[in-house]
Amino acid sequence: MSNRFETMLDDHYDHGFAVDWMRKDLGICLDAADENGASLPITALVDQFYKDVQNLGGGRWDTSSLLKRLDALAG
C-alpha cells in the first residue's frame, strides 16, 4: 500500500500488472484446480471481482483498481 495509496486516491490505475493478465492467470489456476478436484472458492470470488473491474472498463488498469469496484458498489 505504501507505493500505491497515492495513485489509488488520485484514481490513477494505468501502471502495474493489468487486470486482464490477472484474470488470465486466475483462469489457469482455476482450470488446474478443477482438473485436480480442488475447490478454490476465494480465488473464484477474486476472479469475479476482477471481472467486475473489466466491466467498468478497467482491463488494462493495474490490480490495485479493485478499489474502483468498491467505489462503483458504493454508488
- Oligomer state equals single chain
CATH superfamily: N-(1-d-carboxylethyl)-l-norvaline Dehydrogenase, domain 2
CATH class: Mainly Alpha
Write down the CATH topology: N-(1-d-carboxylethyl)-l-norvaline Dehydrogenase, domain 2
Structural class by sheet pairing and helices: mainly alpha
Amino- and carboxy-terminal Cα gap:
24 Å
Number of strands: 0
Largest sheet: none
Jot down its keywords.
N-(1-d-carboxylethyl)-l-norvaline Dehydrogenase, domain 2, 75 residues, 4 helices, single chain
Question: Helices, strands, pairings?
Answer:
Blueprint: H1 5-9, H2 19-35, H3 41-55, H4 66-74
Summarize the structure.
The chain has 75 residues and is an all-alpha fold. It contains 4 helices and no strands. It has one domain: N-(1-d-carboxylethyl)-l-norvaline Dehydrogenase, domain 2, CATH 1.10.1040.10.
Describe the structure in your own words.
By secondary structure, the chain is mainly alpha-helical. Helix content is 61%, strand content 0%. The chain is built from four helices and no strands. The chain has helices at residues 5-9, 19-35, 41-55, 66-74. Helix 2 (19-35) runs antiparallel to helix 3 (41-55). The longest helix has 17 residues, at 19-35. The mean pLDDT is 94.
